[in-house]
Design a protein that fits this description.
The protein is of the alpha/beta class. About 35% of the residues lie in helices and about 20% in strands. It contains six helices and seven strands; from the N terminus they run E-E-H-E-E-H-E-H-E-H-H-E-H. The protein has helices at about 45-65, 95-110, 125-135, 145-155, 160-165, 180-195; strands spanning about 5-10, 35-40, 70-75, 80-85, 115-125, 140-145, 175-180. The longest helix is centred in the N-terminal third of the chain and has 21 residues, at about 45-65.
Length: about 200
């Protein structure tokens, strides 16, 4: 088993491969497409600062509304925020922040070119949201708190990380960046998981 801090995931993981392989920085190989995973700690300072700027906006949404998740979609060329989203769980369990933001983008700009967008989310995308991002063709997804951490804090999640989902889509070439402003997001989710219900 080889480990690296910056990984290239190729194709679908072999049967029995750990669902946490990408989170533990294990390279998964098969097929011909490439999905890259980069930990925030491995980014160059200028790139990390750029991602932190937009992630801060996603976390502001979460903290302002009391959670649980927020998303921001950014035009990678202009740097403009195209749309935002927050969980609308009162409308139903499928209205996750990422899906709300994707839906908003398609309404605001129906011929939107997804290939030029980056999606920032306060928590790693669940399998439903990761699949929607892949189908939309968003080439870059950045998250703060990992699914593994959310589970450890007591937040209900499906135990399947986004790099594993992306690696299972042979038509998708993308880049996932994890852990941007994780300390801030983790502190929020630790508190949020303990809230009175």
């Amino acid at each position: 088993m080889t480990f690296s801090r910056r990984v290239f995931i190729r194709g679908v993981p072999a049967a029995g491969a750990s669902l946490w392989a990408a989170s533990t920085h294990e390279a998964l190989s098969a097929g011909s497409h490439t999905v890259r995973f980069t930990a925030a700690a491995d980014l160059e300072p200028a790139e990390r600062a750029l991602h932190e700027r937009y992630m801060s906006m996603a976390l502001d949404i979460v903290e302002k509304d009391g959670g649980p998740f927020g998303a921001v979609i950014v035009n990678r060329t202009s740097g403009d925020v195209v749309c935002t989203g927050k969980n609308r769980h009162r409308d139903g369990n499928i209205f996750h922040a990422e899906l709300v933001a994707l839906d908003e983008c398609s309404r605001v700009d129906p011929p939107v070119d997804w290939r030029n967008l980056a999606l920032y989310t306060s928590g790693e995308s669940c399998p439903m949201c990761a699949s929607a991002e892949i189908w939309a063709g968003i080439p870059e997804v950045i998250y703060a708190t990992s699914i593994r951490s959310l589970i450890a804090f007591g937040v209900s999640q499906i135990r399947l990380d986004s790099p594993t989902i992306a690696a299972a889509a042979p038509f998708y070439d993308g880049h996932i960046i994890g852990g941007v402003l994780a300390e801030r997001a983790d502190a929020f989710y630790k508190r949020w998981a303990k809230r009175p219900r």
